[in-house]
Amino acid sequence: MDSPAAQNSSLKTEAVAGITTFFTMAYIVIVNPQILSAGGKTGMAFSGVLTATVLVCFTMTLLMGVYAKLPFAVAPGMGINAFFTFTIILGKGVPWPTALGIIFWAGVIFLLISVTPIRESIAKAIPTEIRIAAAAGIGIFLTFIGLKNAGFIVADPVTLVKLGSLGKPALLTMFGVAISAFLMARRSPFAFLAAIVIVTIIAWALGLVSAPSQAFSLPDFKSVFFKLDIFSALKLSLLPSIIAILFTDLFDSISTFIGVAHAGDLLDENGHPRNLRQGLIVDSLATMGAGLAGSSSGTAYIESVAGIQMGGQTGMTSVFTALCFLPCFFIAPLAGIVPPFATAAV
Fold first, then answer.
1. Residue 118 near residue 281, CB atoms below 8 Å
2. Where on the phi/psi map is residue 328: left (φ > 0), alpha (ψ -120 to 50), or beta?
3. Residues 244-279 pLDDT 10s
4. 207: exposed, middle or buried (Cβ count in 10 Å: 0-12, 13-18, 19+)
5. SS3 for 314?
């Protein structure tokens, strides 16, 4: 049942809120393909992953609005995409179609336990300290990747990593961090997106990147879409990876739903997050659907709170956010010129 605030929300307010949420998380359209393709090291095509990313964002955010009736946006999760790339594919040498199969099976398990009280029971049984440690670990892992993409650290055969040179990429990353911090302090929804765009333009002016031959292209549904290998992913040796994805997404989704619901006053009459079960089901479908589309797990985004602060209270906010993702299907050439050091700040 909708809260009084939700019932009094206007369509204009929901539209503004949905657009605000989109701009706070639009960076994922560029960052996720960069992480999953890893400059060609994983074998996943950048254009294909971008299409998969947009597809997950559009369909699952729309489902969150229509089915769960919540103002939460959904997209491939940061952290879990890095684990997918650098631990499963590059670390363990798992072929990317098999890795997508791992995501799919993790999503199947998510769905099975989300339609029952099991998922909530598991989440409540996990000590708070472990939840905090998992979140901190993911944050440190992402920071490590950002430092690598910026050139602050490089590979070393003896110590594994060592300090890199403070060249133009590193300096531009620092500038990107400054832009993001400045805009975040002013609660701007463009904080991350502005940093990526400005650093990319400067890199182009300095000759560090080249302009694409064309600005737009059709979506790429050929390279990674439905290319998962679900049977190879069932090997016993890959079970730990499935469990790791399962629990990482579990921590992420539960903490996002509970945290954002309390911050945005999206609570029912008993003080519990509104439509939590429906939201968790959509979150589970986002993981399973991401494996089919050609991306790492989809999950509810904490950036949704930006739209909620703008007055978004109902599922219409998510509907407007989802519609904003549609044009992103056609920007692969433009997104492809964004250098890793431009997204390192994110």
1. no
2. alpha
3. 998 888 777 877 787 777 777 777 776 677 888 888
4. exposed
5. coil
